[in-house]
């Protein structure tokens, strides 16, 4: 009886087996924080292992090595923003509403995910070397251009958007306006104050970014669509 009790206690004390996909997600989430805060060279696999209650061996089993983990984090970060764009269901909206919604989403995603912006900045320091090794990132971002092109084409076909707007250039403009808001927040707020970085200030900037982009693509006679659509 005593022996059976000991066996039962041993079973109860044994930790539950963790879901492999859950472990992988946890590692990527913590690694995003570690890499975005400390860069590729400064990030510590020991720290990631400790915070996820795994081991370096387990991390290397899933991702190969430190640079492999870093590349997977980049892919995960881009997958999240592109997945969010896909969920906007822009095809069901008129072109003005669709473009305005895309602009607002991009701005709001970036301000709520500063780790993503820092990861992009870090990868630029490395001259995009790890991105070049990833087929996933290129494919994900090509989908973003194609989705924007579809919105532009619908607007041009209906006579609302002017002709000659390049979707890649427009994507650059939306990204630039949204990126600067996060990448330069510390220096900008130190020099000019933090009024633009309050909740109200950020909401105003988000609306105005959408306004600027729409004014760039709309035919002059359709500028009233901005106020009508509530952008």
Automatic annotation (TrEMBL):
Keyword Cytoplasm set for record: no
Region (Disordered), start-end ranges: 1-22
PROSITE patterns, A to Z: HTH_TETR_2
Gene3D superfamilies attached to this UniProt entry: Tetracycline Repressor, domain 2
Record protein name field: AcrR family transcriptional regulator
Species classification: Bacteria, Pseudomonadati, Pseudomonadota, Alphaproteobacteria, Hyphomicrobiales
Biased composition annotated in UniProt, kind: Basic and acidic residues: 9-22
DNA-binding region as annotated in the record: 44-63
Coiled-coil residues: none
DNA-binding in keyword set: yes
InterPro entries named among the record's database cross-references: Homeodomain-like_sf, HTH-type_TetR-like_transc_reg, HTH_TetR, NicS_C, Tet_transcr_reg_TetR-rel_C_sf
One GO MF term attached to the UniProt entry: DNA binding
Residue span(s) of domain HTH tetR-type: 21-81
Keywords: DNA-binding
């Amino acid at each position: 009886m005593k022996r059976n009790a000991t066996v039962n206690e041993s079973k109860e004390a044994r930790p539950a087996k963790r879901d492999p996909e859950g472990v992988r997600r946890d590692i990527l989430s913590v690694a995003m924080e570690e890499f975005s805060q400390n860069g590729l060279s400064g990030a510590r696999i020991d720290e990631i292992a400790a915070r996820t209650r795994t081991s370096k061996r387990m991390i290397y089993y899933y991702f190969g090595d430190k640079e492999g983990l870093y590349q997977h984090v980049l892919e995960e970060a881009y997958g999240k923003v592109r997945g969010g764009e896909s969920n906007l269901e822009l095809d069901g909206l008129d072109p003005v509403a669709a473009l305005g919604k895309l602009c607002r989403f991009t701005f709001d995603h970036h301000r709520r995910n500063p780790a993503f912006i820092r990861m992009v900045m870090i990868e630029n320091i490395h001259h995009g070397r790890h991105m070049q090794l990833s087929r996933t990132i290129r494919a994900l971002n090509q989908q973003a251009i194609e989705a924007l092109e579809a919105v532009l084409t619908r607007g041009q076909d209906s006579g609302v958007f002017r002709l000659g707007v390049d979707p890649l250039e427009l994507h650059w403009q939306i990204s630039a306006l949204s990126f600067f808001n996060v990448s330069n927040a510390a220096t900008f707020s130190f020099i000019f104050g933090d009024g633009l970085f309050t909740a109200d200030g950020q909401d105003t900037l988000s609306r105005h970014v959408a306004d600027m982009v729409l004014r760039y693509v709309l035919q002059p006679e359709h500028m009233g669509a901005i106020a009508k659509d509530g952008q």
